[in-house]
From TrEMBL:
Residue span, Aminoglycoside phosphotransferase domain: 22-245
Organism for this UniProt entry: Phaeovulum veldkampii DSM 11550
Phylogenetic lineage: Bacteria, Pseudomonadati, Pseudomonadota, Alphaproteobacteria, Rhodobacterales
Swiss-Prot/TrEMBL keywords: Kinase, Transferase
UniProt name for this protein: Choline kinase
Entry superkingdom: Bacteria
Biological process per Gene Ontology, one example term: phosphatidylethanolamine biosynthetic process
Record-linked Pfam families: APH (PF01636)
Length: 293
């Protein structure tokens, strides 16, 4: 394995004892990740500084990860320093979108998400961020314009849609959201699920995580109905459906703009252009559903 700067950094952290080896951990599209083994343990090392264009602040990720562990949601933080975070390795499989859609899986995922929403704030220390998707969308649009993105011609329409969606969401209930419910952020160890990667954590509406879970994993209308009924403990009425569909559409739009910005600024070896097209399709489908309400 070649000694990239990230690998050298991971191997040189002062917590290791005895011989140390590292293997790349695939799947991440924000950080460079490794599984590191020393004489005592295996651990996951996440190498990454603040990412201002994505509003990722590492102090916030660290605080959320610690609180999530205290709440029984996420693995323990073993060590941190600026630009590096080490968390306990969990022997588990990473879920796919197909896994999330599989019969019975939502019945396992939703209680974990609801616990995160309720219980993480009880353990959170220090300053905390708000994750408001419509601010993120406006900021991404400005970043794309400033960077002369190939997607700039789309931006006026994007901002018009976002304004309509924000008005449709209206007042919100406030919880502590994960805000990045991609299937790769859910682990199954055979006994329980874990929720990982708190780069975008912050106070938000629960509808954003629910909408993101649906948009990122291709949930069926029947699964969306069951999800809302289970989370809110009641059948969704027309008002809830409209607010939820607006937030689901905003979630898909935010993921699309995230990818567009990453096309300009990410140095990771990943096909962000293809990812943009995938998310554009999810956004358009979500917008069609919103327009029908």
């Amino acid at each position: 394995m070649s000694r990239t700067p990230a690998l050298t950094r991971a191997l040189s952290l002062p917590i290791w004892q005895g011989p140390v080896t590292a293997e790349p951990l695939g799947g991440g599209i924000t950080n460079v990740n490794f599984v590191v083994t020393d004489a005592r343990r295996r651990a996951v090392v996440r190498i990454g500084d603040d990412i201002p264009v994505h509003q990722v602040m590492r102090f916030n990720e660290l605080a959320a990860a610690r609180a999530a562990h205290a709440a029984g949601i996420s693995p323990a933080v073993l060590y941190h320093e600026p630009g590096a975070l080490v968390i306990d390795y969990i022997e588990a499989r990473t879920l796919s979108a197909e896994d999330v859609r599989a019969p019975g899986m939502l019945d396992r995922i939703l209680p974990l998400v609801a616990r995160a929403h309720r219980e993480i704030p009880r353990h959170l220390r220090g300053p905390a961020l708000m994750f408001w998707v419509f601010h993120v969308i406006r900021d991404y649009a400005a970043t794309l314009k400033d960077g002369d993105s190939r997607h700039s011609p789309r931006l006026p329409e994007v901002l018009r849609v976002a304004e309509r969606l924000e008005a449709a969401v209206g007042p919100i209930d406030l919880i502590f959201g994960h805000n990045d419910l991609l299937p790769a952020n859910l682990l199954d160890d055979g006994n329980r699920l874990w929720l990982i990667d708190w780069d975008y954590a912050g106070f938000n509406s629960p509808l954003f995580d629910l909408g993101g879970l649906a948009a990122n994993n291709g949930l069926s209308p029947a699964q969306e109905t069951a999800m809302l009924e289970a989370y809110f403990d009641r059948a969704p009425d027309a008002g809830l459906w409209r607010r939820y569909r607006a937030m689901k559409c905003a979630s898909a739009l935010r993921e699309t703009l995230w990818s567009m910005v990453s096309e300009l600024y990410s140095e990771l070896d990943f096909d962000f252009a293809a990812y943009t097209e995938t998310n554009l399709a999810a956004y358009r489908a979500a917008l069609d559903a919103f327009e029908e309400t």
